[in-house]
Amino acid sequence: MSKRRELIEQRREQARRQTLIIMAAIVVIAVILIGGAVILTNQQAAATASLSVMTPDPRPTPPNARPDGRSWGPANAPIQVQEWLDYQCPACAAYNRNYEQGVIDAFAKTGKVHYEVRSMSFIGQESVDAAQAALCAADQNKFWQMHNSLYSNQGTENSGNLSTDRLKSLAAAIGLDTQTFNTCLDSGKYASKVTQEQSEGDKLGVNQTPTFVVNGKLFPGLQSAADFRRIFAQVAPNVNLGQ
Q: How far apart, in whole angstroms, are the C-alpha atoms of residue 92 and residue 189?
């Protein structure tokens, strides 16, 4: 074989090797991209899987009710109730599931009780994120839908059930403007408010959830409508709530 022909064959062999290397690289990149797409799809599917949407009964709004989205009853009512909660707290979910609607039915229409929700987000980051999500939902007048749905989707602590992706999927499921909600959540619009409320709870002596502060006095633990009736008689004996 002449030198010229030998050189040509060497160059062809080099070209074949380079082509094989490039093809192999393309295959590797394709596998990575496909794998990444599958992972992203799985993450998105996990974010929307098994979402439970709970639409609460309407909260009565008597005259002079404060339209701040997460309270009911007149702002100047003689009985003031603050519910301090953590959306990852199982006892808080039990109160929401078993007692909260009964309390509303018993006292909201009297016009003598102002009831307000406050967050004491101490269990973990998902507690903080959920509290912010509830406030972002309040911006669109759907606090109570988010409030109830957060509890219905509660899992074990910091397990991902209330991750930001899940919260965004939940916002879409309850009919929020997702772009507005996502911007609110991602920007940390209410981060300082959630932190401030936890500090206020600490100052009040709240050390477990749920805790109810009624006219300045702390009542920790689950409270039924009958329990509240006894509490109201204790802190405001002159207020007639009827039967």
A: 25
Q: What angle do CA 167, 171, 175 make, to 5 degrees?
A: 165
* Cα maximum dimension of the chain: 116
pTM of the prediction?
0.76
Distances, alpha carbon 160 to alpha carbons 85, 103, 211, in Å: 19, 31, 25
pLDDT digits (tens, 9 = 90+) for 122-138: 999 999 999 999 999 99
User: Which is it for strands 113-119 and 79-85: parallel, antiparallel or unpaired?
Assistant: parallel
Q: Is the pLDDT of residue 11 over 80?
A: no
Task: Give the per-residue SS3 of 131-199.
Answer: HHHHHHHHCCCCHHHHHHHHHHCCCCCCCCCCCHHHHHHHHHHCCCCHHHHHHHHHHCCCHHHHHHHHH
Q: Which CATH class is domain 71-235?
A: alpha beta
Structure tokens at 238: 């002159």
pLDDT tens digits for range 69-90: 799 999 899 999 999 999 999 9
- Round to whole Å and give the CA distance between 73 and 116: 9
User: What would the two tokens of residue 97 be?
Assistant: 């599931």
Sheet holding 113-119, edge to edge: 71-72, 113-119, 79-85, 211-214, 217-220
